[in-house]
TrEMBL record:
Function: Catalyzes oxygen-dependent 5-hydroxyuridine (ho5U) modification at position 34 in tRNAs.
Chain segments annotated as transmembrane: none
Upper taxonomic lineage: Bacteria, Pseudomonadati, Pseudomonadota, Alphaproteobacteria, Hyphomonadales
Ranges where the Rhodanese domain occurs: 123-217
Top enzyme category: oxidoreductase
Annotated signal peptide: none
GO MF, one example: oxidoreductase activity, acting on paired donors, with incorporation or reduction of molecular oxygen
Protein's organism: Hirschia baltica (strain ATCC 49814 / DSM 5838 / IFAM 1418)
SUPFAM superfamilies with a match to the protein in the record: Rhodanese/Cell cycle control phosphatase (SSF52821)
Gene Ontology terms: biological process: tRNA modification
Reaction(s) catalysed (UniProt annotation): uridine(34) in tRNA + AH2 + O2 = 5-hydroxyuridine(34) in tRNA + A + H2O
Keywords per UniProt: Oxidoreductase, tRNA processing
InterPro entries: Rhodanese-like_dom, Rhodanese-like_dom_sf, TrhO, TRHO_N
Protein's name according to its UniProt entry: tRNA uridine(34) hydroxylase
Amino acid sequence: MTQIIVAALYHFAKLPNYEELQVPLLAACEAAGTKGTLLLATEGINGTIAGSREGIDAVLAHIRSIPGLEATEHKESFAKEMPFLRMKVRLKNEIVTMGVPGTDPSNIVGTYVDPEDWNDLIAQDDVILIDTRNDYEVQIGTFKGAVNPKTTTFREFPEWFEKFQRTHNKPKVAMFCTGGIRCEKSTALAKDMGFEEVFHLKGGILKYLENVPEEKSTWEGECFVFDQRVSVKHGLELGSYDQCFACRRPITRADIDKPEFTKGVSCHQCYDEYSPEKKAAFEERQKQIELAKKRGKSHVGQDLTAERVAARLAAEEARLKSIAGKESAGE
């Protein structure tokens, strides 16, 4: 069986004509047979793709041929099945959205720390360790002793950090995230706010789990990843978590047995978050997915992000309310 390579990459660089890169990059990906998502912005590139060894190498060669992206690094892991359903190249305002204008990792960033040296750094008494990921990611695994900002999106991190630093009394700040990209911006933010000793786990949690033996690790739990693998463990082995297709949060086997769980519709974490109209739409979508599977096809709805699904369902809910309003008015 051919092994599927999963390549995660990002690189901050000034790409003033990034829109012009979209079509050639998508063509290169499709020619190579890769699937996944790549984001382009004036500040660089970010994304994860999966495919054959030859396909991944071809796409990486194309990316590194782009002026400014020659030094793009990537991290690899492996999957038994293709973790993505299609290939997308999207244009964005930021390759990782923090929403603080002027924060530029190309100009200033924290000090990179190799995974092999990370344990020694965070064991120091004058270091505060901060997990820059969102709360649902932190819940299934983090470094021992790390501060959890309890954010729901990365946009909330700057406000949290501004409040946190008022009571912060340790001179050194160490930050980490899944693959390293969020820390590029969070450490740049910390430096902009006047912190001098700011450190950044190079390659993120994924590189740490790949390079540091489990018996020497200070990582507890599993690491959430943004594809159909859901989570990985030490050695980047496949984790034990499943995922709620409605809210995209990780769930355990025990969570699936809870009364709030309906496949593709809700779990105990999002059961009260959606209107009856949205749940009905989710249920219909799940029926279409199951029918598509029986026919041996991929249903387009499977590849929608939670944000896009929510937006589409909100529009449908508004449409239904409008119809109901007209009916009650006798129109």
